[in-house]
Amino acid sequence: MQERLFETLYSEWKEELGAPLYESRSLYIAVFSPDDHLLLANKSMMDLFRGEPSKSLQNPTLGKLRSMSFENVLVYEGYLTIGDNLNHFSSIQAKVFRKNDRLLIVGSVDVSLMAEQNDAMRRLNDEISNLQRQLMKEKIALEKTYDQLNLANANLKESNATKDKFLSIMAHDLKNPFSVLLGFSDILVDSFSEFDKEQIFQQIEIIHKTVHKTYQLLEDLLLWSRSQLGRIEFQPTNRNLDTICKDVALSLSEIADKKSIRLEVRVSPELEVWADENMLKTILRNLITNAIKFAWHDSFVTISADPGPQMVSVSISDHGVGIGFKQQEKIWKLSEQVSTAGTDKEDGSGLGLLLCKEFAEKQGGTIGVVSEPGNGSVFCFTVPKGKMV
Asked: CA angle, corner 251, sides to 201 and 316, nearest 5?
């Protein structure tokens, strides 16, 4: 059968086999002369040679192949390494034949070896891909940890700054009023008989104002401390916004009257909001008090509301000193606040605005300010609309 196959191929398909044999990428053919010169080689074998063909056979070498004893035409069968001994070499499965001192090398790629190599390469690629994915996960985890550390560090700095500011308020804003109280009370005790009624009344009035201001500061401190500890219950219900705004405005009318400031409530009588009444009143009271504090004499403060699809936007606007752009971000942080005196030299701790921000956000809303120095301010916060009953 073999002889018949070769006879048929050589006699009938000689021309047709020539090109495929020469151009084959899996079959390697070379013939060396007795003096080791390359007589012929197909394209794939030429690609394996590096420099002089006779010196490209690395293992076994051409000299070793010639020295092998032979009893038949086949002198060697096995792997043949071709290339140079430094960087480029390949191994092929080959048979070497000797006839008339010529050497015929016929080699091919070991398919099973290629399959093993491909499997090994595939496994290596899979391992590399898995390693890349793992490295990417670890990189993301490290970046997340880094961000968390940065956030924790920023929060720690903020907490320390807040603590320092809080202690400053305790030491300064509480100490000063008590110094006033002690000073005027000592004067009254030591020199009461020397003063007439008008002088006594003036000093009692100063003591009275100082006590009220100190009491309000203590209330803000206690309320803010409770909010930081999470001890304030949140109990939202349907509330009439117009009624609440008018109640708070009425409670502050005496303060406004002293500066001839008119309080205007422009809220629809039917407008309902879903809010905790105490928190809502605290927000309104602080914002209206601030508006009065920084408004010009003989001006007005307006409380208005604009209902949206889900939230109601409540605005408190004044005509007064206003707030600079750089200061607008600082007013919401206790650690960065800079005290600004009102139009009658009123001072404050800044805790009121912090409470407004916390209570607005607690109810699912936001708070912000639009202001320009000399043209007044508009503080606006949102609160959910009332639920249908």
From this structure: 120
